[in-house]
Specification:
Number of strands: 6
Strand order of the largest sheet: 1-2-3-6-5-4
Radius of gyration: 23 Å
Structural class: alpha+beta
CATH architecture of the largest domain: 3-Layer(aba) Sandwich
Order of helices and strands: HHHHHHHEEEEEEH
Largest sheet: 6 strands, antiparallel
CATH class of the largest domain: Alpha Beta
Length: about 230
């Protein structure tokens, strides 16, 4: 099976994989990433098409019209609307996702490049820390951890907050970047000796970053401890 054939089969059905296709995905990180993107698009499509209840009797009317009636203007309009959804929504979510992934990458690179902020060992007052982040419109908690660093940084052209807490297993960096559009589940990036957990909540991209060996469960726990109020 060539890569092109594998991509065609994967695009046609990313959920049910033949043994041969599964082997190709395991061997090629690009195919694995494509499958993850296709599955996310499927989930986004499902959410859009199911968040509003279907009008009572609509399914029956469609079936009866298809079997025994002519194609009315209403029916053609409905078919066109469905076509727009099927064709347009994956593209829309693809653009949205690309923008959010770029924000995640910008955050990651900012933290990697600014090692002085991670190495800072100050003692910021908890009230000062909370007030600074609140100016962005987000309520946070220091969760009893010492705030080693608090910075007002510009990432992707947007003023953000970059702070470092002394967690139970060492320094943990946080970045809060306003302007997220949503559409992504939690995502991880491991780069430059660091591992980051990224999510979008209440219009913000929130990142928690530790050393490369930090377990995901630890990052999730530190995320919840500080920004659980973000919803």
């Amino acid at each position: 099976m060539t890569e092109l054939e594998a991509r065609r089969q994967l695009t046609a059905d990313p959920r049910h994989l033949s043994p041969e296709l599964a082997a190709h995905i395991d061997a090629d990180p690009r195919l694995a990433q494509l499958r993850e993107e296709l599955l996310r698009h499927d989930e986004s499509m499902h959410a859009v098409l199911t968040q509003t209840p279907v009008p009572e009797g609509l399914a029956d009317r469609l079936v009866l019209r298809a079997r025994y009636g002519s194609r009315s203007r209403w029916g053609l309009a409905l078919a066109a609307a469905v076509a727009v959804l099927v064709v347009g929504i994956p593209g829309y979510f693809g653009v949205l996702e690309s923008a959010e992934v770029a924000r995640d990458q910008a955050i990651m690179e900012h933290v990697i490049e600014n090692t002085d902020e991670l190495a800072d060992n100050g003692n910021v007052a908890p009230a000062e820390f909370r007030a600074s982040v609140a100016k962005l419109g987000l309520q946070v908690s220091d969760a009893g951890f010492r705030v080693r660093h608090l910075g007002r940084c510009v990432i992707a052209g947007i003023e953000s907050r970059h702070f470092v807490l002394e967690g139970p297993h060492g320094a943990i960096s946080y970045v809060i970047l306003p302007g997220a559009k949503g559409g992504l589940t939690e995502r991880e990036i491991e780069q430059g000796g660091m591992r980051g957990l990224f999510t979008q909540r209440a219009g913000f991209t929130i990142a928690v970053l530790g050393a490369a060996g930090t377990q995901r469960a630890e990052l999730e726990r530190m995320m919840r401890a500080v920004v659980s109020q973000a919803g």
